[in-house]
Automatic annotation (TrEMBL):
UniProt entry keywords in alphabetical sequence: Signal
Origin species: Helobdella robusta
Leader sequence residues: 1-22
PANTHER family (alphabetical): F5_8 TYPE C DOMAIN-CONTAINING PROTEIN, FTP DOMAIN-CONTAINING PROTEIN
Gene3D superfamilies the record matches: Galactose-binding domain-like
Full protein name: Apple domain-containing protein
InterPro entries, per database record: BG_Antigen-Binding_Lectin, Galactose-bd-like_sf
Keyword Signal tagged: yes
Keyword Signal attributed: yes
């Protein structure tokens, strides 16, 4: 079988088909040059796009280096902000180097690092033009848009015009990857995951800002919010990391350009209904028969992870293994509070009940604060996931040699198997048909030279 590679490149043609939300709205600033009406804050959103320093053409501040150097506009209503565009003044490009775009819902003097961050412009600005910042798609709605010079800026912030565009469809989002880059800030949550996909799923569930994914250590650093953290938010080059950020799908832009986007071949958790929410839940036991620890607390929509707040489920005894269909087994130790995601085997039949059970060799007292369940958006759309240098060491259905992993996976599909091991050196294929799993564990072990393949929904 020949290999067929399909590469999808999104070419976004950026054309303005809507009016800026900011044009003509009330605006104010930390200062304006010589208190002259020529450079009043309103000149920054008056619809005049002439990029020359002249009376009534632009906004120009007078704050010194490290001063306030902020400007804001009140949109008069709340929006999911997607794109903010700033037009420079010829000869004053340096006044906008690495400018910050903030969001707020309270009109008043701007305190540096106190507002929600849309984002910071990442690249140098050395020529006249228009420069856009894409806001994070997991933020709430806001009515105030702030432009601020970083504290290391040149002072006297100035620009010709700015525009604000809201998300066309707030539920339509993609994750953009900044390869070999990392946001060097303290993470809200750090956990070990199996892939970048699992990292961004966890981020989507809690609607976090962005993630760093370390593809060497397989660690996921989630940023719940950047509000309150000191600027700058410029990405740092790091070959071990990829930085991923949620953005709205938009037809707006400035120029024709090719953009590589990490496309997740499944619906993100915040755009799909949690089908376990408020459904009947039961358990084999409850910790000391305490009403604070009943099974229904795991499906009540309350995400508080404090086990002492009467909002979680806690079991009491070590349970027996059941003959139920195995979705999957989480493969890492859990030593801290967090969100832990499992993708189910895509060859299972449709089922009604979802079961969470402790590992067979643990002492009991299973506990969980909330369970979320999402069905396959497209049950016929599936993909194979490879765990490199891993092997499931259990009794397999049968084994044989095949010239490539493709033959191994095709044979597995014919039998609707659970997973396969494939050895690239000796071409050995081990096929597992284990719909109910293995009592002693279903976690592949690290074995050099073997790859473990699992079939998931796309």
């Amino acid at each position: 079988m020949s290999k067929i590679w399909i590469i999808l490149q999104l070419c976004i043609l950026e054309v303005y088909s809507r009016s800026s939300l900011a044009t003509g709205k009330y605006s104010t600033a930390s200062s304006y040059y010589q208190n002259s009406s020529c450079y009043h804050p309103s000149k920054g959103n008056d619809g005049n796009y002439v990029q020359a320093l002249a009376c009534n053409n632009c906004y120009r501040g007078s704050d010194p280096r490290g001063g306030g150097n902020w400007w804001l506009v009140d949109l008069l209503d709340v929006y999911f902000i997607d794109i903010v565009v700033v037009y420079t003044i010829s000869g004053f490009e340096m006044q906008l180097v690495q400018f910050l775009v903030g969001l707020a819902n309270t009109l008043g003097p701007v305190v540096r690092n106190s507002y929600e961050l849309c984002d910071q412009y990442q690249k140098p600005i050395v020529v006249p033009g228009s420069y856009q910042v894409r806001c994070n798609a997991n933020l709430e709605q806001y009515s105030i848009v702030i432009i601020q010079q970083p504290s290391t800026g040149f002072g006297s912030m100035a620009f010709a015009e700015m525009e604000v565009f809201a998300a066309q469809n707030p539920e339509s989002k993609v994750w953009k990857k900044f390869a070999k880059n990392r946001l060097a800030k303290p993470a809200s949550v750090t956990k070990i995951v199996r892939s970048a996909i699992e990292c961004v799923i966890g981020c989507s569930i809690i609607k976090c800002y962005s993630v760093n994914y370390n593809h060497v250590l397989m660690s996921c650093e989630m940023f719940a919010s950047l509000q309150g953290l000191p600027a700058p938010f410029i990405l740092t080059a790091d070959v071990k990391y990829d930085y991923l950020k949620s953005q709205y799908v938009s037809l707006l832009a400035i120029a024709m350009k090719a953009t590589w986007i990490v496309l997740l071949y499944f619906r993100l958790a915040n755009a799909v209904k949690n089908i376990a929410l408020f459904k009947t839940a039961t358990a084999d036991s409850t910790y000391y028969a305490n009403a604070c620890a009943v099974a229904s607390h795991a499906t009540d929509g309350i995400y508080n992870t404090d086990g002492y707040k009467c909002e979680c489920f806690a079991g009491a005894v070590k349970t027996e293994r059941g003959l139920y269909y195995l979705c999957n087994q989480y493969e890492f130790d859990i030593s801290a509070t967090g969100i832990f995601t499992l993708k189910c085997n895509a060859n299972m039949p449709a089922v009604r009940y979802v079961i969470v059970q402790a590992r067979y060799d643990l002492p009991g007292n299973l506990n969980a604060c909330e369970l979320l369940v999402y069905e396959a958006a497209y049950p016929e759309s599936k993909l194979w996931n490879k765990l490199h240098d891993h092997r499931l060491i259990q009794t397999f259905l049968f084994s044989f040699n095949t010239s490539s992993v493709h033959g191994c996976l095709i044979r597995c599909n014919l039998y609707k198997c659970g997973s396969v091991n494939y050895n690239n050196a000796n071409t050995a294929c081990e096929i597992f048909q284990h719909p109910f799993g293995y009592v002693t564990g279903n976690v592949p072990k690290q074995v050099i030279g073997w790859d473990h393949w699992q079939l998931f929904y796309a």
